[in-house]
Amino acid sequence: MTPAAVELALEVRKEIQARHEEADRLRCRAIERAQTEADLAQRRFMLVDPSNRLVADTLEGEWNEKLRTLANAREERERGREHDQFILDKAVHERLVAMTADFNELWKDPDTPSRERKRLLAHIIEDVTLLKLPAEGTTKLHVRFKGGKIQTLTTMNPKSSAQQIKTKPSIVELVDKLLDDYIYPEIAEILMSRVIAQVEQHVGAAMMPALHLSKSPISSTNISCNHDMIDCDSEAC
Fold first, then answer.
1. Which end of the chain is more exposed for a tag (fewer CB within 10 A), N or C?
2. Residue 15: which residues within 8 A CB-CB, separation 6 or more?
3. What is the pTM of this model?
4. Which residues on neighbouring strands pair with residue 144, listed in sequence order?
5. DSSP assigned state of 193
6. H-helix or E-strand containing 139?
7. Tally of CA atoms within 13 A in the half-sphere of 111 that contains its CB
């Protein structure tokens, strides 16, 4: 499936909906005519001389007939709208069901370029509203699809450049404690040993020979490079 197929499905819906709207306008005009005729029949009946029972009965019968015609026109419009909506939903449903498998296959295909994925989204998403919540560090995304469905997503706010390179307060506190008994190169070795311990815990000892072979000398400038992996809850070595 290509973005053109998605656009085709939407065009099918628009075409069917346009036809139904035109049919509904015709039904509305029929209601307006019936309403006008009913109003005229009512005025004629109200103006008749009550003593002339024959004419009054005839005009009353005509008025009642116009009212029945008006009621039938309104009922016909309601039945037509329900039928049109059923036809529209059925046609779109059949088209979209046929497209679903192709859409998922195309979206998951690693060879599909990002620009094509963006075009696909442009055909199915009407708009996206972002609500940033700095206090919570999150952003809510209210996604409104072209079919009318709304879905809310929550994502973490990206960190600034300064926040990304900033050393955690727990690491700074640990280094302050270690400074009482160690010099900078020794502190760097202690921190790196904790990094290695974390790696051994997560990926297993099988990966460690390559890690030890590639380990380069550590200087004091390397202290904060891997602070995200260091467990600072335990006491300093």
1. C
2. none
3. 0.34
4. 127, 150
5. H
6. strand 138-145
7. 1
